[in-house]
């Protein structure tokens, strides 16, 4: 079976899943690039209500990524390293609670198709439907928004942050924009201009 035909079939499956509104990750699911994996994974996490992080990356002899592991940000277990008087340390809880969710993605040299090899889709914590607002991973101002900010500042160099905020929220109604991140993006665009 031709690899390209395989990819087009899988892409059609992704489109139908996205039209239904429910994204899923399954063993054997294929992607063309690791960027595509991360884009799909970000959408999946937004929908389910959790954040992920890259746990491990393995390279081949040519320094090309051939395996990547993603895990829930609440994975691992907190191990305190207090060696002095515990009375002098403030008590603080940890976000690491041993969540089991992880995803292994491989790209064998023989096929050069990126495929999900392992998925453990279990969480030991409640998922957050407001992850778009509270999740650090989803707060970043996208490159598309930064180009819009540059366009606004080019048209009116003295345009204020409030006006830019209103313009962006009208253009991107589904994205929650944190003002602090917007201010940082405006400063970054002004420095690079």
List keywords for this structure.
193 residues; alpha+beta; 2 domains; five-stranded antiparallel sheet; 39% helix
Task: Please give a structural write-up.
By secondary structure, the protein is an alpha+beta fold. It folds into two domains: 3-79 and 95-131, no CATH class; 143-192. Helix content is 39%, strand content 16%. It contains six helices and five strands; from the N terminus they run αβαββββαααα. The protein has helices at residues 3-20, 34-48, 131-134, 143-155, 161-171, 179-192, and strands at 30-31, 52-59, 65-72, 102-106, 114-120. A five-stranded antiparallel beta sheet has the order 1-5-4-3-2. α4 (143-155) crosses α6. The radius of gyration is 21 Å and the shape is globular. The termini are far apart. The model is unreliable at 1-19 (pLDDT under 50).
Distance between the termini: 50 Å
Strand order of the largest sheet: 1-5-4-3-2
Question: Major beta sheet, specifics?
Answer: 5 strands, antiparallel
Radius of gyration in whole Å, from Cα? 21 Å
Spans of at least 5 consecutive residues with low confidence? 1-19
**Could you spell the SSE succession in H and E letters?**
HEHEEEEHHHH
Beta-strand percentage range: 15-25%
How many β strands by DSSP?
5
Tell me the number of structural domains.
2
* Helical content class: 25-40%
How many helices in DSSP terms?
6
Tell me, rounded to a whole number, the average pLDDT: 79
What oligomeric state do these chains adopt? single chain
Structural class by helix and strand composition: alpha+beta
Overall geometry comes to globular
Organism: Rhizophagus irregularis
InterPro entries: FAR1_DNA_bnd_dom
Domain FAR1: 40-129
Protein name: FAR1 domain-containing protein
């Amino acid at each position: 079976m031709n690899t390209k035909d395989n990819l087009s079939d899988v892409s059609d499956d992704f489109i139908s899943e996205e039209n239904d509104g429910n994204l899923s990750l399954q063993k054997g699911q294929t992607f063309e690039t690791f960027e595509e994996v991360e884009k799909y994974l970000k959408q999946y996490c937004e929908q389910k209500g959790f954040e992920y992080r890259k746990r491990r990356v393995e390279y081949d002899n040519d320094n090309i990524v051939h395996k990547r592991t993603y895990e829930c940000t609440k994975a691992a277990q907190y191990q305190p390293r207090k060696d002095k008087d515990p009375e002098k340390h403030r008590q603080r809880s940890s976000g690491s609670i041993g969540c089991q969710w992880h995803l292994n993605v491989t790209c064998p040299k023989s096929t050069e198709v990126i495929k999900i090899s392992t998925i453990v889709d279990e969480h030991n914590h409640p998922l957050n439907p407001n992850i778009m607002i509270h999740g650090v991973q989803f707060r970043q101002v996208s490159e598309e928004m930064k180009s819009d900010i540059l366009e606004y500042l080019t048209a009116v160099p003295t345009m204020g942050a409030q006006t830019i905020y209103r313009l962006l929220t009208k253009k991107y109604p589904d994205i929650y924009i944190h003002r602090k991140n917007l201010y940082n993006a405006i400063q970054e665009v002004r420095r690079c201009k």
